[in-house]
């Protein structure tokens, strides 16, 4: 169990680290943009290079983990994530900074899926929801608390020293992985299929399963408010429609991430305890819809709004159960591929909905209140779709099933 908990702690730490590197450029956008002589849109493009690599890499990461195990890829990933951050900090050339950002995205792509893969193979099936919620909570706390701490450090010391220290911390993580992360027993250890055969079989199994598609769509719709409201438009909406100060609005929006951290652990714990997922996802999505609906359309003080957004985040955290539902429907040999696919579809939602809400707001004469109706609409749609997803557990994921045993 010591090795299992070490794997959980190290993999969660990697997810936290990659989340910090992901959001770091936003902490001093003006200074970084003018340092590289970039316009706002040029800076946005430079920063977004991370995602251009991160998103498509997800499925590749899942396939690699299922075939070859996790250790070597977490080593490679953490090293690339750290090296990319150091490259970004050390150069005066925008092309090199862009390459650094892509290298960071490449390395980061191994963190979340790697962590869930390790949780699946190191721990008993009846702990997956709690521990995958724990991984998510660490990432969310990283955004909520880390960003504040780092933004103070950026103000005091400037962005370059902060990036350099972050990159150096990443190298420390590489050492931790090298010395303390052990490979769990998994079907990958016994896999004898050639790489091409493996890719073909895994993709056929995962992409041919309608349940995985449905749950990926549920994840996308359920996770959408985190990217769209929490990650982009929430502060604008609170300032314009509720007339809060920017600081009050930002504080309220950060409640979504604190709520997510609590909700993903509480939802996972409760789900594992009662051995059930589907109606928790359904109930969570309904309550998330109510909380965002109230936050958007009821008059409330800054405190009241913060409480509503905390509740929205809390019930939003139950979306992590979509990973448990999806992977439990499949053979243990393709867990990485399933998790990676669900995650890739979920984060692709940001690429669609962030600009869509901006477009709608423009078309509606700047009416964010109306444009953001998409938020409760998406979570309500998630609730409706999950209602029709059949409950199913593959024997590999039944309580008491032996972890890491090659596929039976
Ligand atoms: N919770 C996931 C995103 C997701 C996808 N489907 C449902 N939720 C998450 O935080 N992933 C981390 C990442 O950005 O890769």
UniProtKB/TrEMBL annotation:
Membrane association type? Multi-pass membrane protein
**Principal localisation:** membrane
List the InterPro entries: MFS (IPR011701), MFS_dom (IPR020846), MFS_trans_sf (IPR036259), MFSD1 (IPR052187)
UniProt keywords, alphabetically: Lysosome, Membrane, Transmembrane, Transmembrane helix, Transport
The record ties this protein, via SUPFAM superfamilies, to:
MFS general substrate transporter
Instruction: Report the GO terms under cellular component.
Output: lysosomal membrane
A GO molecular-function annotation: transmembrane transporter activity
Q: What is this protein called?
A: Lysosomal dipeptide transporter MFSD1
């Amino acid at each position: 169990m010591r090795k299992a908990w070490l794997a959980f702690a190290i993999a969660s730490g990697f997810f936290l680290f990659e989340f910090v590197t992901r959001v770091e450029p936003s902490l001093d956008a003006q200074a970084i943009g003018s340092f590289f002589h970039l316009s706002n849109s040029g800076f946005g493009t430079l920063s977004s290079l991370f995602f251009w690599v991160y998103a498509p890499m997800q499925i590749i990461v899942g396939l690699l983990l299922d075939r070859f195990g996790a250790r070597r890829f977490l080593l490679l990933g953490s090293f690339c994530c750290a090296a990319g951050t150091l490259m970004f900090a050390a150069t005066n050339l925008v092309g090199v900074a862009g390459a650094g950002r892509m290298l960071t995205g490449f390395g980061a792509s191994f963190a979340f899926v790697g962590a869930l893969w390790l949780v699946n193979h190191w721990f008993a099936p009846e702990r997956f929801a709690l521990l995958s919620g724990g991984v998510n909570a660490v990432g969310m706390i990283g955004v909520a608390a880390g960003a504040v701490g780092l933004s103070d450090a950026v103000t005091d010391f400037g962005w370059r020293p902060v990036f350099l220290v972050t990159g150096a911390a990443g190298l420390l993580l590489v050492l931790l992985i090298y010395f303390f992360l052990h490979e769990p027993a998994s079907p990958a250890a016994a896999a004898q299929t050639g790489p091409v055969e493996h890719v073909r079989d895994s993709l056929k199994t995962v992409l041919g399963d309608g349940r995985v598609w449905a749950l990926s769509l549920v994840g996308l719709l359920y996770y959408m408010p985190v990217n769209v409201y929490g990650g982009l438009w929430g502060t604008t909406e609170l300032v314009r429609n509720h007339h809060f100060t920017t600081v009050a609005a930002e504080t309220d929006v950060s409640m979504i991430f604190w709520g997510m951290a609590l909700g993903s652990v509480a939802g996972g714990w409760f789900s594992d305890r009662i051995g059930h997922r589907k109606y928790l996802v359904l109930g969570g999505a309904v309550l998330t819809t109510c909380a965002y609906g109230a936050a958007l359309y009821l008059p409330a003080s800054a405190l009241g709004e913060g409480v509503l957004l905390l509740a929205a985040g809390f019930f939003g955290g139950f979306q992590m159960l979509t990973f448990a539902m999806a992977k439990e429907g499949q053979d243990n040999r393709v867990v990485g591929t399933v998790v990676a696919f669900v995650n890739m579809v979920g984060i692709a939602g940001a690429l669609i909905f962030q600009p869509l809400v901006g477009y709608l707001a423009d078309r509606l004469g700047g009416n964010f209140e109306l444009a953001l109706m998409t938020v409760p609409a998406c979570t309500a749609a998630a609730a409706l779709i999950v209602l029709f997803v059949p409950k199913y557990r593959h024997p590999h994921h039944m309580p008491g099933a032996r972890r890491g045993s090659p596929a039976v």
